[in-house]
Design goal:
five-stranded mixed sheet, three-stranded parallel sheet
Length: 361
């Protein structure tokens, strides 16, 4: 009996002096696609940072808009839907809220081959008069038309008379590269990967004509009310992780290559994927947008949300304006993070050894 009591006391003491064992938490982040994606470097860095605090973050595949529904019902804790999906969910009464900016610029743009006569959104205006036909836009899914339409309208493009949207499936970029279709609806993360794979594409940036924000990261009102410290830990880890990818994108590429060694890419493509991820989180390299976001990664812009709201109203996604405090909050954002620890972690990654396992190009 004494031995049992001593063992129990020893276990209690271990739990007291090692809080990570006593306070172990498990959270789930949902993605509306396959989990194995080399672009997800911030989440893989955040997993490592959260593990140090005794928090296990799982990444789970979902389909369509089930990510928001799972978070709203606390079957998962975090997700990253597009702003229209956030606004639509809130309008439908789902108790979710955006808690940190992730893709903090308008990421929706077009890619064309370098020899295309289309160099800008202006070149798309009056297409039938200029080129004798509507310009064809390759989509992966019919719903994607809704994503790019606000940007096209802001640029003055007539989506009915100037363009024809074509659902071309997963390999839609091949049809653009082969000039069977004129333009590829895309985003920096995808476009930079394709360029890294030696596709001769040039990106036409939607953020130049409509400065909204794209996918934030969301949680439920339940988590905000009942697990605020967990929400804060997640947001803080993501702020550091977003910064870390910008600080050392090659190390981010090495982390993803280590986590998914079976994904067959060249080292050039692996690096370009991280450059594209940075573009989505910070905007064009060297721009004022990048400098502003670097002051506080993850902080959401009220003006960007107002623009998203108006675009959602104009498109009929929502029927009436929503109170912004029901849509997003910056209450969990830390504006005074010391990034030296995560910088040291990124600097410790043996990039050369990982890179040596891959073909250069």
């Amino acid at each position: 009996m004494k031995k049992i009591l001593a063992l129990v006391m020893a276990l209690v003491l271990v739990l007291l002096v090692v809080p990570s064992l006593a306070e172990m938490k498990e959270i789930t982040y949902c993605v509306p696609r396959t989990v194995e994606n080399l672009e997800d470097s911030p989440f893989h860095i955040a997993q490592r940072l959260l593990a140090e605090q005794g928090i296990t973050m799982n990444i789970q595949e979902t389909f369509g808009t089930t990510d928001t529904k799972m978070v709203a019902t606390n079957q998962a804790q975090f997700c990253g839907p597009g702003p229209f999906y956030v606004l639509s969910a809130v309008a439908e009464g789902l108790p979710i809220k955006a808690i940190i900016g992730y893709d903090t610029i308008n990421i929706w743009g077009m890619a064309v081959t370098s020899d295309s006569p289309i160099k800008s959104f202006d070149d798309m205006i009056g297409a039938q008069e200029k080129y004798g036909h509507k310009l064809t836009v390759a989509l992966g899914d019919p719903s994607w038309e809704m994503l790019v339409t606000p940007t096209l309208k802001a640029a003055g493009v007539d989506t009915v008379n100037d363009l024809e949207f074509v659902v071309a499936g997963e390999n839609r970029y091949v049809q653009v590269a082969e000039k069977k279709l004129d333009m590829l609806f895309t985003w920096p993360g995808e476009c930079w990967q394709l360029i890294g794979q030696n596709y001769d594409f040039v990106y036409i940036d939607g953020n130049d004509v409509l400065k909204t924000s794209s996918n934030p990261l969301c949680t439920s009102q339940y988590m905000i009310d009942n697990e605020p410290e967990t929400v804060k830990a997640f947001v803080n880890a993501m702020q550091q992780a977003v910064y870390a990818v910008h600080y050392n994108p090659e190390a981010a590429a090495a982390i993803m290559a280590t986590d998914y060694p079976h994904i067959d890419v060249t080292w050039k493509a692996a690096k370009f994927i991280q450059e594209g991820r940075n573009y989505q989180m910070f905007g064009k390299p060297g721009s004022e947008t990048e400098a502003e976001i670097l002051k506080c990664p993850g902080k959401q812009s009220e003006e960007a949300w107002k623009l998203n709201m108006q675009a959602a109203l104009d498109s009929g996604t929502i029927a009436e304006e929503l109170p912004l405090d029901k849509v997003f909050t910056n209450e969990f954002i830390d504006e005074n993070i010391d990034y030296s620890k995560v910088e040291a972690f990124m600097d410790s990654i043996d990039v050369a050894t990982v890179a040596a396992r891959y073909a250069a190009e």
